[in-house]
Fold this protein.
Amino acid sequence: MPKHVQACKKLMNSKKSPSLVYWLGNSLYLNITNRCSNKCYFCIRRFKDGIGSFKLKLDREPSSNEVISELQNVINMKNWSEIVFCGFGEPMERLDCILEICRWIRRYYGKVTSVRIDTNGHGFLLNRGREVVKELEEAGVDKISVSLNAHDEETYRQVCRPAFDDAFESILEFIEKAKEVLTVEITAVTIPEVDMEKVMEIARKMGVKFRARRYISCFW
Ligand code: SF4
C-alpha cells in the first residue's frame, strides 16, 4: 500500500487524536487553532468535538511545522482543488502560522490551485500594526471567505458576541482592503436574526460575492 494511503488511513482511524488536517470532498482543511475572538451562539464548537471522523478540538496549539508535517502526509493523496485554513477556531489568531504554512505550500506544491482562509474578518483587530492583506497576498493566499453573519453592528454584537467593540466596522474595512488584491466573498448563516437581503446588499455594494450558509449543527 502506498505510503501516503497508509498515512491517510492512520489519520482517519485516529479519531481520538485531534486532527490538524482534515478533508471534505476535494478540499483539504487546516485546523491551526481553537482560539476565536467571537463567541457566536451558533458556533459548531459549542455542540461538537469535530466533523465526521475528525476530532478538531485541540489539546494544544500546534506549531507550523507540526501542521506542515501532517499536511505532507496527505497532500499527495489526491488532486485537492483547494487548501483552506478553517478549523475549530479563527485562523487569523495565528497570522504568522498561516504565512509560514502558505509559503511552504506555494514552494513545494505550486500545483494546488487555491489557498483560502475562512475567517471572521477580525484580521486587522487581531494583528494591529501589521500589513495583514499584503502579507497574506505575498505568502500566496488567494481567497478569503468572511463570515459576516449580520446586516448591522447591533445584530453582529447580538449573534457573534465579539471581543472587540468595533468588530463589525473593522470587518467591513478588512473586506474593502482585501478585495483590492484577493478574491473575497461574504457569507452569512441563515439564522432568524440576520436579514439576508441586507447582507446581500452589503456584498453587492462592496462588489464581492455573497454565499448563504445553511444553519446546521454540522459544518459551515
Ligand atoms: S467566528 Fe467561527 S469559530 Fe468563532 S465563534 Fe463564530 S462560528 Fe465559532
